[in-house]
Amino acid sequence: MKIRSFDEAGAARLIVDNPPVNALSLSKGVVASLTDALRTALDDPAITHVTIEGAGGRFSAGADILDFELPPEQIEPTRELFALVAGAGKPVIALITGEAFGGGLELALACHARLCTADARLGLPEINLGLLPGSGGTQRTPRLIGVAAALDLMLTGKPVTGAEALSLGLVDEIQAVERLRSAADAMARKGVPTRAPRADAVQREELRLTLHKHARLLGRSVAARQIGVCVEAALDVPLYEGLQLESRLFHELMASSQSRALRYAFFSERAVARLPGLEQVTARPVASVGIVGGGTMGSGIAAAALEAGFRVTLTDTNADMRVRAETVISGIFDRDAAKGRITPQQAQERQSRLTMAEGYEAFGEVDLVIEAVFEDMAVKQAVLRSLEDVVRPDCILASNTSTLDLDILAAATADPARVIGLHFFSPAHIMRLLEIVRGRVSAPDVVATALAFAKRLRKVPVVSGVCDGFIGNRMFEEMLRQAYQLLEEGALPAQVDGALERFGMAMGPLKVMDLAGQDIGHKIRQRRMAEHPDRPYSIVPDILCELGRLGQKTKAGFYDYPNGRNAVASDAVNDMIRSVSAQRGIDRRAICDEEIVERCIFALINEGAKIVEEGIAARPLDVDMVWLNGYGFPRDRGGPMFYADELGLTYILARIRSFEKLSEGWAWKPASLLVTLADAGRALRSLDTAARISV
Ligand code: 3HC
């Protein structure tokens, strides 16, 4: 039963009951049942008005995204329902609690009035799926609250609270949850409010200014541009014509590659936590967390865990570090409070769950300990061994290592099955990605607990097997190899980074290394060159280190940073790169953006496929979620694996084979998985399980 209904005080109460989020599903019959229930109420002379609400304290998260796979003609019933609501001869009033998102809010907008609780959340997040609000949102929202506020809602996709919605004019009244129905009855008796139309000339100027404000987004997002077109139409044409235009553009967007990629990202971010093989495994309960090390990582992890409601005990043998960590953590919460993200009381409550301690004895009762000490095998092994002496036998021991072999680390303990890697990315309380490194003998319930813990931190957890660099850094290494190579062949840093940023990467790889610190890259290269002397690196980044150009922290790396953060091309570095080419006898040539993008991105794709083939990542979608959430890969391209499928594996393979003929061709050995899939005419996506969607 997806719609429950009963009559009360002359009102028909219609309740959408489609857990977990009350999506207005076509395939599950929600739209049809709601239409039937509404028709019955409208035909019943004893009913004076209708209220619509959502079960479980949630109005509706909108259209069922899984329905987007249906052929367009099967989406007709939604239009019928919305027309019935808007044209009803009796007042139809939406009672909003929890979320009213997308089609859920559009349903409320089609109603004659809206009442909501102060903490409800209302939004039109379709842009996050590469779509526009397709059930009247682009037409009714500007008519109700004006073009500027409507565009802000639709272009940012960010929700507003009930209280904010009232001041925007999106809802008519705020009420306590238990008063919603009676207030709606009173409103129906009095007559629902009407609004005066807005002055046209002001609206046009607001449209121009707001589109200008969002110019960068409009340059990239097809959906954003179409939202602009629809909102402009709302000023020019009658509602029914605007609705027709909106519907046509919605269907066009649905077929766009940006929307396919964004929908894939939405479901994949949820599918990553459903790792095949762990379906029947129960996670251990975690209420308290121990952290070893009060450095940047330890403090950030502590802040993330406190924010998620855990009790946290942080130890550092160094008293100064303990003071520093406590100050850093309270600073994070104070800033959140100052920005209005949380109340001062919430900040205080979070801080009150933190205990600082000197030694490990404080960990006697914790459920999980994460070590975030110096990145050195012997140091970390000693920490894990000491922890074993004090923690409970069922306490999970996690390492935040980013480079060390977890199996060797775990082997130092008496019970390696309870050891796992939790590779947080800096700043740990902000970055969404968490690589969970599963050792050869990590127990399945330890992995399941790590996944559940990560979900509570609101991270995107991706399970990686043990290998050098895990999923993310191992792939980044191959991108960097190409970037350095391109410098020697004829490109300059600003061109390499610029081409990749225009492709959509949040930051070019050379700027990333300037941010991370060139000395870190140097250390990793030294180790890898000792391990694989047959795989030489460009000497360009090493010369930077010799020159003391360690990146942003020394205000000089591949670029100059005269005011700290903004990269400015450096003539000295560009000359150095030219002289390296000359020394190596390379005739520098003009290199186009397309070659830069193909070599850097296809290197990622090839390595990602090897990672899937070796079982380091369970599925291609796991690789993609690492890159979307930790490495700034453009979300509207889905991730390297999704992008490979979009271009076609046959094409990718042909290009990889042509790169094999380059001077460092050994780096381009094609992944056998790519060869097998391309030969069979299959896509990487065909290997995704538990993804719930096939875009
Ligand atoms: N359709 C189908 N499934 C949905 C859904 C939707 N609109 N929204 C959420 N779900 C599913 C999720 O995939 C997840 O499934 P799983 O448990 O099998 O992985 C489950 O519901 C719970 O979702 P979350 O894990 O995200 O739960 P949270 O409580 O953290 O968040 C939420 C709930 C805030 C509603 C969040 O899910 C959300 O933001 N959903 C997307 C809302 C959205 O984008 N709506 C617009 C849809 S497009 C539209 O309406 C078009 C219209 O204009 C025509």
From TrEMBL:
Task: Please give the chief subcellular localization of this protein.
Answer: other
- Give its localization: Peroxisome
Looking at the keywords, is Transmembrane helix present?
A: no
Q: Where is the 3-hydroxyacyl-CoA dehydrogenase NAD binding domain?
A: 289-464
What's the domain of life for this entry? Bacteria
Q: Which UniProt keywords apply?
A: Fatty acid metabolism, Isomerase, Lipid degradation, Lipid metabolism, Lyase, Multifunctional enzyme, NAD, Oxidoreductase, Peroxisome
- Tagged with keyword Oxidoreductase: yes
Pfam families per UniProt: 3HCDH, 3HCDH_N, ECH_1
Q: Which InterPro entries match?
A: 3-OHacyl-CoA_DH_NAD-bd (IPR006176), 3HC_DH_C (IPR006108), 6-PGluconate_DH-like_C_sf (IPR008927), ClpP/crotonase-like_dom_sf (IPR029045), Enoyl-CoA_hyd/isom_CS (IPR018376), Enoyl-CoA_hydra/iso (IPR001753), NAD(P)-bd_dom_sf (IPR036291)
Question: So, what pathway does this thing act in?
Answer: Lipid metabolism; fatty acid beta-oxidation
Which BP terms does GO give this entry?
Answer: fatty acid beta-oxidation
Record-annotated 3-hydroxyacyl-CoA dehydrogenase C-terminal domain positions: 469-561, 596-683
Catalyzed reactions: a (3S)-3-hydroxyacyl-CoA + NAD(+) = a 3-oxoacyl-CoA + NADH + H(+)
The enzyme's first-digit EC class, named in words, is oxidoreductase
What are the GO MF terms of this UniProt record? Answer: (3S)-3-hydroxyacyl-CoA dehydrogenase (NAD+) activity; enoyl-CoA hydratase activity; isomerase activity; NAD+ binding
Q: What is its EC number?
A: 1.1.1.35
Note the PANTHER family from the entry.
Answer: 3-HYDROXYACYL-COA DEHYDROGENASE-RELATED (PTHR23309:SF51), 3-HYDROXYACYL-COA DEHYROGENASE (PTHR23309)
Q: What is this protein called?
A: 3-hydroxyacyl-CoA dehydrogenase
Q: Which organism is it from?
A: Sphingobium subterraneum
